[in-house]
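dumping the sequnces here before i forget
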Amino acid sequence: MSGAALDFSRQRSASADPLFRRILAAGAAAGGILLLVITGYLIAYSSPLWAIQSPISFLTTPAWITGIEQADGSVLEVYGAASVIFGTAATSLIAVIFAAPIGILGAVYLVEFAPRRLAAPLAFLVELIAAIPSVVFGLWAVGDLSNRLRDSIEWWIASSFGQIFPWLSEDPTAPASDSVFRAGFLLAIMILPMIVAVSREFLRSVPISLREGYIGMGATRWEAIRDVVIPTARVGLIGAVLLALGRALGETIAVTMVIGNAEGIPSSLFLPGQTIASKIANNIGETSGAIPLASMVALALSLFLLSFFISLAVRLTLRRFSQVRIVS
Amino acid sequence: MSAPGVSLHEALLQPGAHDLRRARTDWIMQRIFQVAAFLAVLPLFALVFYVTLRALPWLSPALLTNNPLDQQPGILNAVVGSLQMTALAILVTGPIGIAGGVYLSEFAPRRVAAIGELVIDIMLGIPSIVAGIFAFLVLVPILGFSGWAGSAALGVLTLPIVMRTTQEVMRLVPPSIREASLALGVPVWRTTLLVTVRTALPGVLTGLVLATSRSLGETAPLLMTARGTNAENFLDFGTTMNAMPIVIYQYANAADERSIGQAWATALVLMVIALLLNVLVRWRTVNSRVA
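..and the predicted 3d for all of it:
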């Protein structure tokens, strides 16, 4: 009978379902396995370092000395990540200080005030910034932006506050050719689109009726934003900034190109420095021997853990907004 | 309370000094928001303008047909290297990422899906230099500095992008479409592939394009894996391979005009490719929930 034949074909194809699911599950598992393997490799390859130095001393020592032979014949080796951790923290914080207010205010404009015809193209242009490769940002900074910053914002801050705060001072006759501040400012530009895009999503998710209710009671639009929209979207805005912070921490090549790659903790933000990522990028090429390599991997492991905790924090912050999702 | 000749009703409608101040604050705040929004797009124009300005004198047909050390400066091997390493990374991680994304949105039990999402979040946050050092540790000792290692580093970065976008767009497919197909007796695998994935296909392709764009622009992981070369490297994955970002980075601080010119020209080519890819997919999605 044709019915039986039909049945048979259906059963045969239905029996492909478990296999199909397993193939798909294998794809998902690949992601998890890859993450575990990466973690495993970082831990395993950094372990030779822990034999000569504890993780605590690694994280708190500012000096980084790779095998200098002493007078008595012993070899001095110190691997301290404190100065690069300082560089990473300083550049990321500078980035967030500049990018968060402008990004969030800009997102408020796009959602609350911009006419429809303007809002879409503006949002689109801001997101395009995110598409530009970081090495192109780096080149732009080396060729143009860095000098402009030195002669404008950096000069202004140094001449206004440099006398009061030594960490904001700069020699006006010979400003450094690279600086931590300029790297941080470049990062601000690079993370701006992410802050705008994510904040915009959350601001848009605030129900219109809340604004209407408040404005209907006589509030101005600004008052509605201040008292209703921003408090409602607050958690999302914090998440947006955290996400951008995570991005700034790991950014490598653009920072490497403008930060100057100087050892030690700089006495001023307007002097060259180094970040975790830029140190790896700079030194991995000349690294030989188990312990120097382990020290590089230990840096990578710290960066990995840092971004791991930021991702976790973002996830916990944004958990309640399951309907708003963010890619890249 | 009210002035003579003015009813209470009218007096209440008169704007007082307090109201005028509020209106003024409102106006000022609107301008501040507006300025912030324009400041946010300013860098795009400044960067595109400046890169174009510096690159224009070096643009010539020879740029795309010559290698770095040829008589005429060129970046052929870098363009080829970038494209083939990215292509390999996407060819491998694309199907895996799509499969994983489909599984997480369609079949995974709640808890597995939650863990999967967390894993993707963490992987999206992995700094590119960490992906690079991973490929450096795993593959460089076996295969040396090579295109293989470069592709592997890129793959670590593209996999979560593809998986996340796939998962997100699959979620947007209305359940009724799946149910209609299943009710007709179509087996699950055919329903998934021919109905659900097909409906979500534009979004899945968006994910692939975004991953491609990200991968073409990565520098740090390639510096420590593919290393760069001045020789031709067409399909020669076994040895060092050049890439556009490597050329930009290595020539950015060069002493001679020619090398610096090559860096800017390469930056323009790379930037145009990245912008085009993103214009292609983002214009449609920027105002929808899935980006």
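Residues 74-285 of chain B form a domain with the MetI-like fold fold (CATH 1.10.3720.10).
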